[in-house]
Amino acid sequence: MQHLRAVILDLDDTLFDDTACTRAGLGALATRHGIDLHPDDLFARHAAHIHAIDPLLFRGEIDAHGARVLRFTRLLTELGVPNPDGEGATVTYRESYRAHWQLLAGANTLLHTLRGRGLKTAILTNYVREVQHEKLSHFGLDALVDAVLCIEDVPAPKPAPGAYHAACAALDVAPAQTVMVGDSWTNDVQGARDAGLHAVWINRRGLAAPLPDVAQVTALDELPGVLGLVGRAAQR
Question: Would the CA dihedral through 201, 203, 209, 210 be positive or negative?
Answer without folding.
Answer: negative
